[in-house]
Design a protein that fits this description.
The chain is α/β, with parallel strands linked by helices and 295 residues long. It is built from eleven helices and ten strands. It has a single domain, classed as Alpha/Beta hydrolase fold, catalytic domain (Rossmann fold), CATH 3.40.50.1820. A hairpin with a 2-residue loop joins strand 2 and strand 3. It is globular.
Amino acid sequence: MDQQPETKGEMLGFAEYGDPAGYPILYFHAGGSCRLDIRFADPVLKAQGVRIVAADRPGIGISTFSQSFTPAEIARYTERLANELGLDKFGVLGWSAGGVYALACAARMPERVTSVSTVAGMAPMSTNQELDFDLETDHVLFRGSKSRPGVKAFFLKASQPRSAAAARASLLKSLQSQDDIEIVQGLADEDAAFMKEATSAGTRGVIEDYRAVRGSWGFELSSITQFVSVWHGEEDSLVPIEHARYLQDAIPNAVFQPVSGRGHFLLHKEIGTIIGDLIMQASFAEENRCAITSA
């Protein structure tokens, strides 16, 4: 169900999936996407006893616009949302560009974030890997980060799909992995809706989201103290696996999890394994905390 709690005049829209009484995980959607891109996982989440809270970033979907935010500032938005929902401790999961925001939360809330996973996540753009992106939208919005906002807005508006079928067809043009092609071809209309919903309130939010990921993140990867699972499909052409290797080297307790035969949409096939890993991380963190407390 979509919701919009008001926090200091800002409206942060989100949807919830899975078991309402389950282990809470805050989910961060991909770039050019929204809260709906994890909707497909609802049956698996219920079966595994997990509650996903998937928020739209500012200006995307049903969240109000906020200009010039950084990933670290989104962590503060997220903390306020967690407070509104009464969540003390929780996991974080980010797909593609959303991985940046999951890592920001881990860095900014070390006492509250108990488990961390990125899936097809991105390295900082300062590593000069931006030219590796195959998706046309990524090329325009990352490489054109210094161009006028109006140019990018025009591009987004012109490329906006008019239907779920059009969205699938547009995305398929950029996919190389056969696994990705099969997943996208098989998306139900309601599960493909995230591509259109992202710009339902206009293009400014998506443009700001790309700008935030392209710029300074506002935190250091070396400051993250939690274990971090870095999942990446070996056949991913949209965000090449070099990004995952960079994260593995830069995050002190990162565990690189390459997945053979999978592409950028590996979350659709590996969601059960990834969620199981997050639950295991949380359990280990709690056991370790209890051991330290009783020592």
